[in-house]
Predict the 3D structure of the following.
Amino acid sequence: MTEPLPLRFFNTRTRRVEPFAPAAPPKVTLYCCGPTVYNHAHIGNLRTYVFEDLLQRTLRMAGYELHHVMNVTDVGHLESDADEGDDKMMLAAARERKSPWDIARFYEDEFFRHTDMMKIRRPDTVCRATEHISQMIAMVERLVARGHAYEAGGNVYYDTATFPAYPDFARLQIDAQEATERVDADERKRNPADFVLWFGQSKYPNQIMKWDSPWGTGFPGWHIECSAMASEYLGETIDLHCGGIDHVPVHHTNEIAQSEGCFGHRWVNTWLHGEFLVVDDAKMAKSSGDFLHLDRLVEAGYDPMDYRYLLLTGHYRARLSFSFEALDGARQSLKTLRNLAHDWSYAARDGGPARESDVRDRATAEWRARFRETLANDLHVPNALAVAWKMARDPELRPAEKLALILEFDAIFGLDLAAATQSRSLPDELMALIARREQARADKDWATADALRDELRAKGVAIKDRPGGTDWELVG
Ligand code: AMP
Ligand code: ZN
C-alpha cells in the first residue's frame, strides 16, 4: 500500500501549522458541526460547508480512508450560542405556523438541496440530534457521576470550575467576559461560563419537542449533541473536528469541556476552523426574512458553480468579502476555464478519440506534484487554482495532457468541469440557428452564414469552424 501524502494543517488547539498525524492511518475520523435547521442556510454557512468539502476531498486524494460525520441540529439551539434567548426551532414554528418537527425536516431537505447544488459531497454519516437523545442523556449522567455537572432549578448545568482547562482552547479571559458580556446571566449558574446540558425548565409552557430524562421531561442543550454523536460514531478520540470560526469561544470550548470531562483524556487532535464570509449584516442574518441564500443567487441568474469558484479564490483562514462584482468575476473565470476544458477535449479528440499515450507521465507529474503541494500546505486552494491556470498556459503541454490534469484537479475543485468537455447543448432556438448556418455554408450562401454568425454572437455564442466540424463557445 502506498503511504498517504503528508499534509500540514493549522491546528486551532496549538495555533500552529503542524504535520497531520492521524491516530490510525490510513483511517481518518472527521466530525463537522452541521446546520441548525430552522431556516435556509445562508451563503456564509455554505462557505463553511464548501471548506469542509474541500478538506474531505483533499484527505481522500491524499490516500486516507475517511469517516466524515456531520450532525443536524433539529432541537436545542437557542438564539445565542450561550443558552440565552428563545429556542430557534420554536421561533421558526411560530413564524411559519408549522410544528417544529415539520420545520426541521423541511429545512434539512432544503439544506441538502443547496449543498447538492454546490457539489458538496454528503458526509458518510449524517445524524439528527432528535434521534440521539438517549446517548446525550447517558453522557450527561456520566458528567454528573464524575462531578462535572449539577442540577439547579430544573436544569442540568456543566460546572466549568471543575474543568480548569476551560479557557485554554479559545484563550478566553473569563474575568473580563464576566464583567462585560454576561450581565443577564442565569442566576441558577454557579459560574457565568456554565452552560446547560439538559433543559428541564422550558420557557415555553407548550414545548413540543421533549423527552423523559432522569431530570424530568425536557430537551438537550445544543453543545451536548455534538459530543454525544461524535463519540457514538467515531469513538472517544477524533483526528479532525471542524466548524466556523465563531464556534471557537463557546460551542467548541463547551464540546471539549463535555467530552474531555467525560472521557478523562484529550478528545480531538486537530481542530480546523473556517473564517467567515462577510456581507453587510442585513443581507446575511438568517433571522431576517430576506437574506442571501443560494436560491437568491440562482434567481439573479448565477450558476451555483459561479459561487463555488468564488469560494475557491479565498483561503479558508482568511475572511472573504462577498459582492456581486466579485461573483461576476468568478463567473467570467469559470466560463473561461470551461471553454478551455472544452477546447482541450475537442483538440484531443481531433482525428479520433483521445489516446492515453497522448498523456506523457513526465509532463504531467510535475504539475500534479505542484498542485498537491499547495493543498498539502494547509489546504491552500487559491494557490491550487493558480497552479491550474499556469498549467493551462504551459506551451509544452499537449491538449490531452491539459485535459487529464484539469479533470484530476477538478476532483478537488468540484466545479463539474467534466460536463464542459462533453457534448453540450444550447437552447433549441440557438441550436436551430447553428444548424441553419451550417446549411447556408453547405449551400455556399456566405452572406446568410455570416449574418447568422453575427446573430449568434449577439446572443452570446461564438462560432468556431474547425477541421472536424462546427463548434461553439459561450462568450460574455
Ligand atoms: P448554523 O446553521 O447557524 O449553526 O451555522 C452553520 C455553520 O455556518 C457553522 O459552522 C457556522 O460557524 C458557520 N457560519 C455562520 N455564519 C457564517 C459566515 N458568515 N461565514 C462562514 N461560515 C459561517
Ligand atoms: Zn458542534
Summary: The mean pLDDT is 91.
